Amino acid sequence: SVINANILNTLIKRQVIQFVQQVGILLCIWCTVALIQYVSEVFEQHLIQNLDIAIRTDIVTVLTAEPYNIYNRRDSATYESWLNNDLQLINQQGFESLFVVIEDIAGALLALVTLAYFHWLLASAAAVLTGLIILLPRLLDHRLSVTSTGLTHQNEQFVSATHDALHVFNLLYTFQSLPLLIAKVRSASMALKYANVKRTVVQTQIGIIGFLGNILSQVVLIGLAGLLAVQHFVSIGTINAVGSLAGNVFNSLGNLSNTLGLIRGTQPFFQKYVDEQAFMTAPSVKTTNAQKDVPIVLQLNNVSYHYPASSILLIDHVSQTFYPGQKILLTGASGTGKSTLLKLIAGYLPLTEGTIMLSRHQISARSANYVLSKVLYLDQQPLLIQGTVRENLRLNQTFTDQQLIHQLLQMKLVTSEKDGAHFLNLQVGTDGNCLSGGQRQRLALARALLRQPEVLLLDEGTSAIDPATAICIEKLLLNMPALTLIMISHTVHDQVLPLFSRVIDFANLTRTQNTQNN
Ligand SMILES: Nc1ncnc2c1ncn2[C@@H]1O[C@H](COP(=O)(O)OP(=O)(O)OP(=O)(O)O)[C@@H](O)[C@H]1O
């Protein structure tokens, strides 16, 4: 702007050489601006991506510290939304806006100093008008925060609904109900649209307030410069410079209130992560050598449980003792609470009444890691990660290929070591869809046995395996002397029944005191 003023002044005075010099300087300045722009854009992207990685790592760290039941109170799609949609909004509203704010403040300060260089009255007037432009849009802060929170919830619901709809594609395909998938995605999109529009309305209102303040302030400042020029306090060229400087200050600061509003709008996202942290578990308890020496025994004392969302007491004062190496068959009608009991023993669900002792220690007093290092629960639906069989068996822990192949052979997934080496590299697909149901169950069993658990809780773990192979695998488990096994099965084979130490009918567990059955 100073150079622009100089150019106009040299023209008025017909100084050709000085005019050319000033134009040259202007050109150099713009080239430097272009270079700074280029370097800062690349730097910004590096910084934003690093911040994203840090936030994602923080979120996942909080989630991995949560107990099983706390994590499972939301579906995984909600967490996906946190890691993707929220991050996108944080990037756009937060980080990108932050760089704009830095640029705006730097530009505005420079412009104010330049105005002061022309005349102190210009700088003072600009400073007062600036304050007004920044403060006015804050009136809409609360509405922006509310609509931003609404948008983040809607994002979660959208991802959850679409995830669910796409997940059941095979079901809808079989029943020729695929239009339902379209309808679900459409209705989730409509809800998301309204949340987005609501927030944009507030954002635009903030923008308009800033814009109007900006225009009015520019007019006032140019008028003031004109007055000062008429009074010969400043040169005529100054009016030209003040015009562009005023534009610079008020455009930047008019936007500033808008961008600051956007940045403040990201606060609800972070608040959500902070709230989540409140659920973090207590620090893990160290296991002493003396505790390790205690023989494994499970003891349930008056255990009762109902899910928070239901008033039905599924487990009603159950007392049982399990000795090391025992093999228990748990039978009973569907939906009565057998899996729930195993989840309580594994420490997945918090006990509401009674105690469960593992190695003579209350599991509620032990860290989740301690319980999980001794007790392994195998779900009815084995979960597999996308990747190779090897990755699924190791889950980031160290096992040699030989150990892995040994388990594959035991679970009859392969017939030779050579086949095993090949099978380890097989990609299992999404949710293990490249494997059969029986193969998935055997892979889950191999993965569990690799860890040599002291107690294995097997929930219908062989239900999808052909009878001949299932009998072989069950015999193998039942003949492991050190393993304490509690197995739920609706289809137990006659050949393995005598190998169980005890058969417990779940219906007889409730309100019975059973301490010494063998
Ligand atoms: N997270 C949950 N929240 C609320 N209720 C649940 C939850 N999980 C299971 N239930 C309910 O608890 C009851 C017992 O379920 P559970 O899975 O323990 O039964 P089960 O005896 O293992 O059945 P099955 O033999 O069919 O596997 C069921 O009625 C079920 O609807």
Structure description:
The protein has 518 residues and is an alpha/beta fold. It folds into 2 domains: 2-277, ABC transporter transmembrane region fold (Up-down Bundle), CATH 1.20.1560; 289-384 and 435-514, P-loop containing nucleotide triphosphate hydrolases (Rossmann fold, 3-Layer(aba) Sandwich), CATH 3.40.50.300. 62% of the residues lie in helices and 9% in strands. It is built from 19 helices and 10 strands. The chain has helices at 2-12, 16-64, 68-71, 76-118, 120-135, 141-167, 169-174, 178-230, 236-264, 267-277, 289-293, 338-345, 368-374, 389-394, 401-410, 417-423, 437-450, 467-478, 506-509, and strands at residues 298-305, 315-322, 327-331, 353-358, 361-362, 375-378, 455-459, 484-488, 502-505, 513-514. The strands form 2 sheets. Strands 5-4-1-2-10 form a 5-stranded mixed sheet, covered by helices on one side. Strands 6-7-8-3-9 form a 5-stranded parallel sheet, sandwiched between helices. A hairpin with a 2-residue loop joins strand 4 (353-358) and strand 5 (361-362). It starts with a helix and ends with a strand. The relative contact order is 0.09. The model is unreliable at 281-294 and 512-518 (pLDDT under 50). The structure holds adenosine-5'-triphosphate (ATP). Residues 307, 309-310, 314, 334-340 line the site of adenosine-5'-triphosphate (ATP). Adenosine-5'-triphosphate binds at residues 307, 309-310, 314, 334-340.
- Nearest-angstrom radius of gyration? 35 Å
Taken as a percent bin, the fraction of beta residues is 5-15%
Classified in CATH, the superfamily of the largest domain is ABC transporter type 1, transmembrane domain
Pick out the low-confidence regions: 281-294, 512-518
Helix and strand sequence: HHHHHHHHHHHEEEHEEHEHHHHEHEEHE
Please identify, by name, the CATH architecture of the largest domain: Up-down Bundle
Helix/sheet category: alpha/beta
Q: Which CATH class of the largest domain?
A: Mainly Alpha
* Main sheet overview: 5 strands, mixed
**Beta-strand segment tally:** 10
| Unique ligands | adenosine-5'-triphosphate
CATH topology-level fold name of the largest domain: ABC transporter transmembrane region fold
| Neighbour order of strands in the largest sheet | 5-4-1-2-10
Provide a count of the helices. Answer: 19
Round the mean pLDDT to the nearest integer and report it: 84
Q: Say what oligomer this is.
A: single chain
Give helix % range.
55-70%
Question: What is the CA–CA distance across the termini?
Answer: 94 Å
Estimate the global geometry from the Cα principal axes: elongated
